[in-house]
Amino acid sequence: MRALVTTLTKKAKGGVARRDDSVETDMLRFGRGADCEVHLSDPRVQLHHAQIVFRPGGYFLEAFGQADFEAGGQRTQAHRLNAGEKIQLGPYEIGVVGSTGEHDIALTIELVRPLGDDLAMLRTRSRISLGGGGLGKRGWSWLLFLLIAAVFLGAPIFAFTMKTPSPRGFDPAAAPHGLLAKADELWLSGPMSGSHKFFGVACESCHQKAFVQTEDQACLACHATIQHHADAKKFQFASFEDRACQSCHKEHTGNAAIVLRSDRFCTDCHAGIKQAAPAAGLDDATDFARNHPPLRATVPVDAAGKLERVALTGRRGPADQIGKAAEQSNLKFPHNKHLGEKGVRHPDKGMVKLDCGGCHAADPGQIGFLPIRMEAQCIECHQLRFEPKALNRQLPHGKPAEALAVLGDFYAAMALAGGVEDADAPAIVRRRPGTPLKTEAEKLEALAWARAKASEVAERSFGRSLCGSCHTVEKKGEEWQVAKVHLTDRFMPKGKFPHGRHASMPCGDCHGAAQSEQASDLLLPGVENCQSCHGSEKAADRIPSACIDCHDFHRPGLPPMRPARQAAVLGR
Amino acid sequence: MHESVVVYNRFRFLKAATLLGLVAIVLYAWHDPAGGLPNGGTWLGYGLGTIGALLILWLMWFGVRKRSYGEGHVKLEAWLSAHIYLGLSLIVVATLHTGFQFGWNVHTLAYVLMMLVIASGAFGLYAYLRYPRLMTENRRGLTLTMMMQQIADADRDCRESSMQLGEEINRAVLQASQDTRLGGSMWRQLAGRDPNCATLAALRSIERLAEKTSGAEASALRRLVTLMTKKVDLLRQARRDIQLSALMQIWLYVHVPLTFALIAALVAHVIAVFFYW
């Protein structure tokens, strides 16, 4: 066949360049192979892609092997050529012109989809800089700014506006629920103190007004009875009128700061308290180990029970307490005899060995001891029997007039019954029991004996053997007077000494009871004894001991610290 | 960037920042807050917090100042030196401000964001001190544009030299020239390599095919393999260049947005503290 192949090339300035090639061949092969009649130099075309052959019926375009082309919108491997149609072969378009005078077939070839500029395509495919994609720095900045502002500022403020503080502090039932209502927990600046944890998540319990420090009323809702530190009338400067609760009690640092433990807060004033408040009668104190005044016990110092603070010393130990500071309790009580090695004589059990705990029972709080009572601690041994022939009868304790009446009644009854076995007694009372008294004179004689006998027994019992052995007893005319007993409940009311926490120590380490012969011995140790174990606030070689370990700031027994507000809370 | 930012004016700002840090540490050790626990609410806590917040605002101003290069009395170099050292001093100031009290709250959030901003800035300083030299070494006198031009040229050479070779090889070469890309996603740029590199895959398959051929075709294949190998080397070099410049940019994508996050958290922190005083 003779074929005319016209190659069309678009020119940069517009228009089309044509190059005609006339080929005489049996088959017209298309491909990028150099041996092809129509050489299509593009990698998207196969080495031998297709050929045009003449067969009965016309000219056919037939693809080699797996190759194909597109004719009439269909992908195909063989196609009869018609004049005027366009065929897509790879990136080339083959126009079928048909037969001309000289040529059996004329074709146009145009590269309609060139590969393009390699560099431009590489640039298009590649992203070689961080900019451009996504939100960018500015976008992320705005997003994060707004997100954090909304979650950590907007939401908590909204949560605050949802809540109204309950007048009685935290009220779980009234608190709003939901995630948004809890948003202000994001503001929690540190762990709550243990005692406040149960309402700690309800910020509004304390933070009742925005931008206002926690007010006293929030604290007083629970702590309505909190007391003064000192008598506010006498010591105005110790009333702390100008401070709020939160000035001293700082929340959100766990348990560390809610109750001030630092000595500094005490020694601020107490380092010079003697000069600042002479009327208080206090000595200066700055440090437990180095500068603490002697302990002073508040004890009765005379028979009338006048209380005074008596300084305690005991530098050489408990035995040093004997015979120094004196307590006037109006009792006679030799501790040494009760604690003797051999023990004491029990009326029924023979010799019994006593120890401190036999009489001194700890109070339920393990702070001090229950008061000593005759009926509880003494009477088991010190029975108030007055008549050997009636061991089942005892005098009542604590009631002298009743005791005298008991004696009178007892001996009167004995005289009237007869049968008294006393050789010195008149015959009328020694008569056979059951014999009735016949005359008035006999009765009077018998009763006279009874009175005399009762008086004699009273003299012996009250004055010496029974009452007098422990009490100071005085006879005024016919009346017996037992001096009022002044037993001290708290020797040091301004300090705390938890006996329970010292239970591992023998009592004798502090109290010289085993050597004490007199009840007037004040068996309390001096501060030196404490200092042998307890040191300064930050001691390294002793138990670190702060003021507040022994002393309360808000002192029990004193009036309310903020009377008006506390009354308002309590009265509600 | 020149090292002079680090040594600027004989470490003037290093000295200033060290002094600030030391004063803060001494005061922290000396002060004895109520209850014995240091926190942001003591006089020192408020003091350090105020200094820290003002420092953060001033450090942010650098972002504005650097956009007006050459203006103002103080050289930008001095600003940057101060930005670096005073920024680092915040580690001490802000940590002591916290009193080492941390929790799941806005306060610790502000602290953590600040530390992340400082860490990203520290990486930025490292990047500017180290990577330019690595970049120069890697470039061997070429720019990235020149490398890309050479890659494009190599593509054309490869295609031409495979034109008379078999379909399989021709297709591989065509794919290598059409599918090979540089950079890409942030991770791809930072990784500095492309495990799915089309050119590398094509080279491997051509090498496999070359083992089975002989004669004239084999010598044509050898020439192709040489060309492809050259292209792979160019790609590796370009990707390393892209990696290094990505590393020099990436920290700012953390530093700047986190700074704005920090400002939001800082404002929330300050307002929260006084709102719930």
Mean residue pLDDT of chain B: 88
Greatest chain-chain contact: A-B, 67 and 69 residues
* Spatial ordering of strands, largest sheet of chain A: 2-1-12-11-10-7-8
Number of helical stretches of at least 4 residues of chain B: 9
The succession of helices and strands of chain B, N to C, reads HHHHHHHHH
Number of strands of chain A: 20
Instruction: Provide the structure class of chain B.
Output: mainly alpha
Given the structure, what is the number of helices of chain A?
16
- How is the main sheet of chain B built? none
- How many domains of chain B? 2
Estimated structural class of chain A: alpha+beta
Mean pLDDT of chain A: 87
Distance between the termini of chain A: 121 Å
Helix proportion of residues of chain B, in percent?
Answer: over 70%
* SS strand fraction of chain B: under 5%
Number of strands of chain B: 0
- Poorly predicted residue ranges of chain A: none
The gyration radius over C-alpha positions of chain B equals 28 Å
- The gyration radius over C-alpha positions of chain A equals 58 Å
Distance between the termini of chain B: 46 Å
Residue share in helix of chain A: 10-25%
Q: Can you tell me about this structure?
A:
The complex is a heterodimer of chains A (572) and B (277). Chain A is α+β, with helices and mostly antiparallel strands. Chain A has helices at 118-125, 136-162, 216-220, 245-248, 264-270, 273-276, 335-338, 356-359, 374-378, 400-417, 427-430, 440-465, 467-470, 527-531, 547-550, 563-571, and strands at 2-10, 16-24, 28-31, 38-39, 50-55, 58-63, 69-71, 74-76, 78-80, 86-89, 92-98, 105-111, 296-300, 307-311, 344-346, 350-352, 473-476, 479-482, 534-535, 543-544. Among the domains of chain A are: 2-115, Tumour Suppressor Smad4 (Sandwich); 141-260 and 553-572, no CATH class; 373-482, no CATH class. Chain A is built from 16 helices and 20 strands. Chain A has a 7-stranded mixed beta sheet with strand order 2-1-12-11-10-7-8, with no helix packed on it. In chain A, α10 packs across α12. By secondary structure, chain B is mainly alpha-helical. Chain B is 79% helix and 0% strand. Chain B has helices spanning 4-30, 43-65, 76-98, 106-139, 144-162, 167-179, 186-191, 198-210, 215-275. In chain B, α3 (76-98) runs antiparallel to α4, α5 (144-162) runs antiparallel to α9 (215-275) and α8 (198-210) runs antiparallel to α9 (215-275). The longest helix of chain B has 61 residues, at 215-275. The interface between A and B is large, with 67 and 69 residues.
